[in-house]
């Protein structure tokens, strides 16, 4: 038996989840224990997750789930799997990009010969367009968006966060926001991830200085704003969580409700324009109240007056910025300057 044959036989022997000592393996294959050590080392170097457990009940074992039972796919199921892989690859920031490629290679290698041409067919016939830029919500100045380095950093943040979710461990990271001065160091207990409009959002419990979850501790962090991140060895007891409680825009609806405070932007507009904004991915979560005179007053949180002014100009002459009051003077000055240029 060659070394490769013996290593493969060891792999099959461990595939049932049992733990086998080096002595037992040496006796079974009629080689020395030192030879078994070298065989297991070769398996580990090729990426096979063989672990050694110490103690009287110890030995070598294979990571649970490394081998999957044989599966067969219909033509439609194969297309569905390849489309899923293509969609994941088409994301702006695909986490585990290398594993995505190797998974596709393994899938194609396991397919019957008659189904292998489907890979080329799906790549040639079906494409996925990425979401377009939102003109009303541009990136904040200084954001490193779209560069290879920024995408790689975001992918790393998503990968580390997701691994922490699966392992039940905490993470530490430095987070940067456009509305805060300086970066914030945060320790969190990850719960899940959400992908929305080509952005990854990390969901977790923010821990206080004593590593305890304060009131309303659940937070959303944009992965592209994570400056540094590292996993922690600390484990936390799992908390009830279901990402389906946040999809359908519910996460944004809750955030908009928090932002809609005393200093919120309030705009009076015609009913027809309000109905159009109710269909927008962002503005549909604003608060809309009839004013009793056939118009609607929309309220939402906004810290940048320029963005609010753009919306008012888009709404047209029937719209009126009601608050914040200091912004009214700024908008009046801008509109006066525009009229002066048109009159020149």
Q: What portion of residues belong to β-strands?
A: 15-25%
Characterize the largest beta sheet: strand count, sense, and whether it forms a barrel: 5 strands, antiparallel
* CATH fold annotation of the largest domain: SH3 type barrels
Mind telling me the CATH class of the largest domain? Answer: Mainly Beta
Oligomer: single chain
Read across the widest sheet, the strand sequence of neighbours is 6-5-4-3-7
Domain count: 4
Structural class: alpha+beta
Share of helix, binned: 40-55%
> What's the rounded overall pLDDT mean?
86
Number of strands: 11
Catalogue the unreliable spans. Answer: none
Q: List SSEs in N-to-C order.
A: HHHEEHHHHEEEEEHEHEEHEH
Using the alpha-carbon principal axes, give the shape: elongated
**So how many helices?**
11
The end-to-end span amounts to 93 Å
Q: What is the CATH architecture annotation of the largest domain?
A: Roll
- Rg of Cα set: 28 Å
How is this structure best described in words?
The protein is α+β, with helices and mostly antiparallel strands and 344 residues long. It has four domains: 3-62, Winged helix-like DNA-binding domain superfamily/Winged helix DNA-binding domain (Arc Repressor Mutant, subunit A, Orthogonal Bundle), CATH 1.10.10; 75-125; 148-241, SH3 type barrels (Roll); 255-343, 2-Layer Sandwich (Alpha-Beta Plaits). Helix content is 40%, strand content 21%. It has helices at 3-14, 22-29, 33-45, 75-89, 97-110, 117-125, 148-167, 250-259, 271-277, 305-315, 325-343, and strands spanning 50-53, 59-62, 169-175, 184-196, 199-206, 218-222, 226-235, 265-270, 287-290, 295-300, 320-323. Strands 6-5-4-3-7 form a five-stranded antiparallel sheet, with helices on one face. Strand 4 and strand 5 (199-206) form a beta hairpin. The radius of gyration is 28 Å and the shape is elongated. The N and C termini lie far apart (93 Å). The model has no long low-confidence stretch (mean pLDDT 86).
């Amino acid at each position: 038996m060659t070394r490769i044959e013996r290593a493969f036989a060891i792999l099959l022997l461990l595939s049932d989840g049992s733990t086998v000592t080096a002595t037992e393996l040496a006796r079974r294959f009629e080689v020395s224990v030192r030879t078994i050590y070298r065989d297991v080392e070769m398996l580990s170097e090729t990426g096979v997750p063989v672990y050694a457990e110490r103690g009287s009940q110890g030995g070598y074992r294979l990571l649970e789930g490394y081998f999957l039972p044989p599966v067969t796919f219909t033509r439609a199921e194969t297309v569905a799997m390849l489309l899923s892989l293509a969609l994941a690859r088409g994301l702006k920031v695909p986490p585990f990009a290398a594993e995505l490629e190797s998974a596709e290679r393994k899938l194609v290698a396991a397919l019957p010969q008659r189904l292998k041409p489907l890979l080329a067919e799906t790549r040639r016939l079906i494409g996925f367009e990425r979401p377009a830029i939102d003109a009303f919500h541009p990136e904040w100045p200084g954001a490193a968006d779209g560069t290879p380095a920024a995408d790689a950093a975001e992918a790393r943040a998503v990968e580390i966060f997701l691994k922490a979710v699966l392992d039940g461990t905490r993470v530490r990271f430095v987070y940067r926001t456009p509305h805060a001065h300086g970066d914030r160091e945060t320790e969190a207990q990850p719960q899940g991830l959400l992908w929305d409009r080509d952005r990854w959002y990390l969901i977790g419990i923010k821990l206080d200085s004593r590593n305890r979850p304060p009131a309303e501790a659940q937070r959303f962090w944009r992965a592209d704003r994570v400056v540094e991140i590292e996993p922690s060895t600390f484990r936390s007891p799992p908390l009830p969580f279901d990402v389906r409680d946040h999809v359908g825009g519910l996460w944004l609806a809750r955030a908009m409700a928090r932002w809609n405070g005393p200093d919120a932007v309030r705009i009076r507009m015609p009913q027809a324009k309000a109905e159009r904004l109710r269909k927008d991915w962002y503005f549909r979560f604003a608060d809309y109240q009839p004013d009793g005179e056939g118009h609607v007053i929309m309220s939402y949180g906004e810290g940048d007056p320029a963005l609010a002014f753009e919306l008012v100009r888009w709404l047209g002459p029937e719209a009126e910025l009601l608050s914040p009051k200091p912004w009214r003077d700024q908008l009046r000055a801008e509109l006066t300057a525009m009229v002066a240029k048109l009159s020149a």
